[in-house]
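Quick entry between incubations.
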Amino acid sequence: MTDRMTYGITKPNQRPGGSLPPEPIDIIRTKARSRRVRINVGGLVHEVLWRTLDRLPRTRLGRLRDCNTHESLMEICDDYSLNDNEYFFDRHPGAFSSILNFYRTGKLHMMEEMCALSFGQELDYWGIDEIYLESCCQARYHQKKEQMNEELRREAESLREKDGVEEEHGCCPDKRQKLWDLLEKPSSSLAAKFLAVLSITFIILSTIALSLNTLPELQVVDEFGQFNDNPQLAHVEAVCIAWFTMEYILRCLSSPNKWNFIKGPLNVIDLLAILPYYVTIFLTESNKSVLQFQNVRRVVQIFRIMRILRILKLARHSTGLQSLGFTLRRSYNELGLLILFLAMGIMIFSSLVFFAEKDEDATKFTSIPASFWWATITMTTVGYGDIYPQTLLGKIVGGLCCIAGVLVIALPIPIIVNNFSEFYREQKRQEKAIKRREALERAKRNGSIVSMNMKDAFARSMELMDVVVEKGEEKHPIDNHLSPSRWNFQKHGTNEGSPHTLHPRYQEVAQLGSPIRLSPSRASPQHLNARRLEDVYNKMTTSSSLTLKVGAAASHEQAKRLEEELEMTIVTGSSRVPQKERPSTDIKNTASPDSFTSCIAEFTEGEKGSLLPNIGGQRRPPPLDLSQISAIDARGPENVQPSSIIKEGLYEFVSTQPDSGGSRGGSGGTTSQGEDNQAFDMTVESIRSSIKSNNPQKAKALKVNFIESQEETKVSTPSSAQGRLPQGTAEDTVSRSPQSLSASLVEAKSPFGLLMSPVSPGSLGGETAAKGSEGEGQPSSLSNTGRNHMDRVASSASPLSPKPSTPNCSQEVAGVEDGGGEGEGGGGEVTAGSVGVENHIILDGTLSPPCETSM
Amino acid sequence: MWTVPKPRYANGYNLCFEDVTEIIVNIGGVRVVLHSDVLNRHPESRLAELVNCSSRNNDAISSLCDEYDPCKREFYFDRDPDAFKCIIDVYYFDEIHIKRGICPICFIKEMEFWKIEQSYLDECCKSYLSEKEEELAEIANKVKLILDDLDGDQSVHRSERCQKFLWKLMEKPESSLPARVIAIASFLFILVSSVVMCIGTIPELQVEDAEGNLVEHPTLDAIETACIGWFTVEYLLRLASSPNKIRFMLSFMNIIDFMAIIPFYVVLTLTSLGTAMMELANVQQAVQALRIMRIARIFKLARHSSGLQTLTYALKRSFKELGLLLMYMGVGIFVFSALGYTMEQSHPETLFKSIPQSFWWAIITMTTVGYGDIYPKTTLGKCNAAISFLCGVIAIALPIHPIINNFVIFYNKQKVLETAAKHELELMELQSDEGATIKTKSKSDAAGAYGELHDPVSQ
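Done. Structure below.
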């Protein structure tokens, strides 16, 4: 954490008065002072010549040289210290050494132990095209990447399938779903397992019956003198077929997509196993007395042979058989090779042996095609002995043929085997993964996971709180503003500070508040990788789990009760408004988390009427989103623009009514401030009380949070906020998306994220606002390292206002206020409608500039 | 082993300098403190030079290192610290091992930079290095081939251009659509002629000629002639378009082609002229013998299948293992046929009439084919048969494994080479697109930059 410390110290130096970024001339001077540059990547310090970096001027490191302003620097690196000539990047250090070597030697290699995907992400971050990867690593890299893409696609497909199941509007879809689970997923329940075993038994029984049927002792002679099936065995057969038919029909009925079902290879096999029986019955019944009885018999015989196909039904119950099929399909190239080799060998040896043997008396090698059989039998070393060479020459050819056969067959088989084993392993792994995911889902539904991890998460969050508070005291500029990613960073970083003496510090921080320039917060959307979004998605889809999580965040108690409780506390808090007299600032700060929680809690209610477009958007992103986002992430910062666009697209529902919401929020903010405060007070109190009752620790944490944000409110200025006004809509989208992000965080790590959540949306919104005021409309903020942007925003905002100011806090406050005010307006009725309104207003609050002045 | 050099160098060089000095080197951010006596064990190396001249002038220092900090007495090198950690071993242990994860080619360049001879590289890593170098060379070859195909039409003469065009048409099926069509047609002709050759031997399809001999059906004969015509035209065109005629004639695939064609013409000449010179029976025998050579045309398929080429390559490479296989089999055959023969002598109706005859039995048993035309009848003989069968399995399985391994390696390598070559080409395209705007973007460019870096240092 030493580097952090140094930054903390250097920053005030750079910006006297706490707000001024270093002048470009300073930066240039520092850069000119040394030919070297220190690059700190994830704690590992590298030293490199500027000249080396200049070799790839378009990459991230290459651009570092040309950046002479604070803003542009912050865009490229996560932090820097001019005194030390050091630039900090919060990335994987292992990958970076090979990337730096690329600058030095021009050869890009991949660390053996590194995952190809994460390496690809690193490459994207540093702005190096993967095409420069050396040939030796290229194959491995692409193989892995393809595999991963395939997996992602498959996952997306399965998700879509799930959606399809949900969207199906047939009769009693839940029952159908149950039936589907029962028949298709043997692991889902005991009954399903039993059914699977029963099915296997029937298959085996029917195959045994089929073979026994052909024993002459068991056959009976019918009136035509023909052998016919044994009646007992025929009964067995009928029962088996009946079972198969029933199974097939039930499956077909319960399947969500009929056409896909019929197309499926396993189901085709099923159908083929059943059909011959019915065709046989049909033919024999319809043509009983007709003259072409013999023909019918022949057809019937053919169909009887097709009954053998039912043994393939076992494939449904065996992973091994399935992977065999897949392997054969995948390695058809090698199979072709095998057959080609064999065919050539057969050709050559059969013609050779033909020429050697054809003059022999009574030879069986009458022609080349006739000796094909011999060559085949010899090359496969079966050797029936019905035909064998007799001349010396023929025997020599035969001997060579044996050896060549062994060789030729052995050669391509290892490749096929390799394919098989790979596939088999993959299949096993996937089965496990699916099981795990199902278990996870079940646990989520029960709410057990959240409560399980609560204690740990809580302890951690408390610890981090301490750290931050301490930091805020010692080097104020940095950490007033808390955001989830920041927390993560600190958590991962070395231990700095220990949790001691919390309360006095809070006070101090609170007092320090106003003079201290607000430092950039480090909310980084960069950390919002695909996985997290996926998580969000998963959680959002199950609305119940969402509420549960909120509930869990507040207490360890059971989910349902919690939900009720939360609502209750809110209601009671609102009724108690006038009694509470508190400093408004305090309240506001807490209010933001508070309102946030409340709005989340109300997601569930809002969901019914789908009043809230944004919630709908969050809860059900189109299934493609997952892959899209992961793609964005993989592409990284170089192509910021598309990614942000896509993200906006993700939340495009969110921005459906920006104008009306904005105006409303603005009006609300300006007119009813006192009311707002009170409302806030109330909500804060309610939440706090609820929290306190459940968990004193938590309350403490909340306190810390609001004390810190208090400074922000004091610091805030109208000027920056007004600058923000014009781009209401654009901002709106942005400021909402962070909120959804923070929502995801709330769910991801319950107590911890909850504390953070109020901060990050505000800061992000502020960031865009500041940018707008600057006049640079880059939409890059979201996907890029949010951290840099935050810093930059803070600094860029500061020149606008005489006082040190951060737009984000003001905005946040506004949002909080509005939310509170609206909540008050909603009054005692905590219904879905009012909840929806509240939620909107929180979002809209970003647009109302005047509120913060009042604060 | 590292104790040996110490006295040698210590005595040799340490006397020259007043005392043991320490220097601090900073390699890409990693600081290392080194003692001059240790460094002087390899006086020709860069670090030793640095120690020796450290007290002298700045020019010498700056030529040796990238930067010198006089107050800290720190020498800065803009190099890979990981590789340096390996290279520094040479001063202590007199040998270098390449760490896993470092590309050996890069490592060699690092060694060059530190002016340490390649011979200090340990044997185990040398093989790794040579493997990599070979692979790179192969890739380069392949790329060069592809590039040659891509650009070609610079030749001035019209005839040359024609020749090149023809060559591409005949030899590079992937170069254009007509070339592909020709390749497919050629493939079909091979198949048809092979099938015709086989079918022609079926007695029912043969017709009797004037002398009562069975000869091939006239239609089949016509097809055969057409195929041979095609092959001849193909061969001649190839020959005409090839830049180097003699090398063309001697290459393996073309010899096969030639062998596939020539029997037909020989038979033709023999039947037309032969009766005048030789007896009819002799001519017929010669024709029969030459007919066998038609089989060679099946090998022509190898031209169209990379799998077959891999097979031949693998077999060529594993010549030793094949010899081993044959030797094992030969020894086994001798031993077991002799044993079988002696043991079966006690039986009155033995099928083992002589040792050479029982060779056949031994082969058939050892390869687990087992026709059943000869089989032992006595108990001892049966025991012998069982043992010979087991030994046969082992004798075949043991040498086959390396052959298979070779095959798999080549097969995979083929694939890797293909992707690598493709990638290399992409890279080149990218380069040509971006052109001069980017200084360093690829290996070759980087090599240039490497030289650039080298220049100020080595001056």
